[in-house]
Structures are given as structure tokens and as C-alpha cells.
Amino acid sequence: MFRGQPINPPADVAEALLRAGDRLGPIAGRVLWFPEVTSTNDVAATLAEHGADEGSVVAAETQTAGRGRFGRAWASPPGAGLYVSIVLRPTLRAAAVLTLAAGVAVAEGVATATGLEAALKWPNDLYVGRRKLAGILAEGAGAHVILGIGINVLPAAYPPEAAHATSIGGELGRRVDRGLVLAECLAALWRRYQEVESRPDAVIDAWRARAAAMLGRPVEWAHEGTVERGVADGIDDTGALLMRTGTGVIRIVSGEVQWG
Ligand code: BTN
């Protein structure tokens, strides 16, 4: 699952996390940083099964089997991105809005750290125009959820299947402080994670504010062997995607959504 022992987080990351300390709550109370893992989500899941505290973070310089949603590979070139997983233990109620909150938090963290504003595409992909900047994979097993975050920080030679990828550095044309990006994303995550319990409506509103570009876009929804086509109409108050078709509005909570 991983090669070698965890190393100390690199100085740029350690310093940024220290500076953000009082805004992180329990997040990053423990940080395990690896030179290489298969997938940080796998390492974090093993830790969680062994009782790791909520907020424990697993990160790696590179992943040999990084994965995205629907079993897709997540390209993880060394030193070009942030590959991070966080152990969370949300209530059942909070879990429903958690993936949306995570997308909002990463967009906010990237904006605070770098000034780059990313848009959200349901449920929690970050885009700049038509190019993907970051993705989130939430995997849950009963008592815990592993929130895996992949952020493209610097331009890299991505494989053909990730040809539509972009990076913060590629968009801004300048150096990026990855420690600051991580610290601000985790601080925003802690803020939004608390809201998921206390004010889920605020999370939904923040998500909607970053998703205007999604509205009216053609959508294909594959589920149970069929494909429905329509246009994106927004999300409802539970975070479900609403797709307008010729015959009405369909509420989508799961299954694969393809964007036109
Ligand atoms: C997606 O857009 O489909 C989700 C991508 C999630 C990638 C991150 S990188 C850190 C964590 N470890 C993984 O194997 N995946 C997530």
C-alpha cells in the first residue's frame, strides 16, 4: 500500500499548517506524509479502521494507483499535485451534504491561497472553464468517511485520459505555494464541515454560488442500465442534482453524470 515509512511533512507544508493551526480544529492533528503510496484513500481507510482520530491526514508526493470516481485513474505525477485524504466521522445527516461541502471548501481554499476562482460541477469537481483543476473522492464504510482530495498544483505531463486537466500554476502562470493551498483548503474544510451539521443550507447556498456555469448544460445520467438526457437545472435543498428533461425534472442522487 505504501513504500517506506511516513516522512515529516516538507517544510513548506509544515509551516503553513502551523500558521493555520487555530483555524483547523481537529483537521491535521496528525499528518502522515509519504514519498509514495498506492492511494492515500487506502492508507487513510486502514488508519480509520484502526481507530485513527477524526481529522487525521494522509498525504503523498505521488500515488501509483490514485483513483477517481467510478474507478477512473487519478494521475498523480510526483511533486505536481496535492494528494491528500482526511479521516472524518460525520453523522448520517452530515454525510449527505459532506461531498458538496468538500467541493466548496477546496474551491474556497484555492481562492484564498492563490486568487484562482474555480467553478463547481456536481457533485464536487472543480473546473476552470472546461478544464478540471481538482477532484474529490469520498469513500465511506459505516463509522468513517475518507475524504480524498486531488488538486493539480503545477503543470505536468498528464496521460491522454486526463488531457482536459489544468493546474493552479498553469492557470496563473506563476509559482504556487502548495503548503498554503493545502492549509487554506483544510481550514475551509473545517469551517464548512461544522456547517454541514449546524447550517446545511449555508453549504448548499455556497455551492450554488460557484455552480452557475453548470446551469443549462446538457447532462446524461447513466443508471440501472439506462441513460436519461436533459439539462442541468440546479440542486435541491438536499444536494441532489436536478435534470430537466422533455417530460419533467429528474432528481439525481447517485449514478454517473456526463456533461455535454
Ligand atoms: C475524481 O475527480 O474523480 C476524484 C479524484 C480524487 C483524487 C484524490 S487524490 C487523493 C485521494 N487518493 C485517491 O486515490 N484519490 C483521491
Textual characterization of the structure:
This protein has helices spanning about 10-20, 40-50, 90-115, 170, 180-200, 200-210, and strands spanning about 30-35, 55-65, 80-90, 120, 125-130, 130-140, 145-150, 220-225, 225-235, 240-245, 250, 255-260. With about 260 residues, it is an alpha+beta fold. The strands form 2 sheets. Strands 1-2-3-7-6-5-4 form a 7-stranded mixed sheet. A hairpin with a 2-residue loop joins strand 8 (about 220-225) and strand 9. The protein is globular. It binds biotin. Biotin binds next to helix 2, strand 3, strand 6 and strand 7.
Strand-residue proportion: 25-35%
The global form is globular
How are the strands ordered across the major sheet?
A: 1-2-3-7-6-5-4
How would a crystallographer describe the biggest sheet? 7 strands, mixed
Q: What count of helical segments does DSSP give?
A: 6
* Helicity range: 25-40%
Attached small molecules: biotin
Order of helices and strands: HEHEEHEEEEHHHEEEEE
N- to C-terminal distance: 36 Å
Q: From the alpha-carbon coordinates, what is the Rg to the nearest angstrom?
A: 18 Å
Low-pLDDT segments: none
Structural class computed from helices and strand pairing: alpha+beta
Number of strands: 12
User: Please, what is the average pLDDT?
Assistant: 94
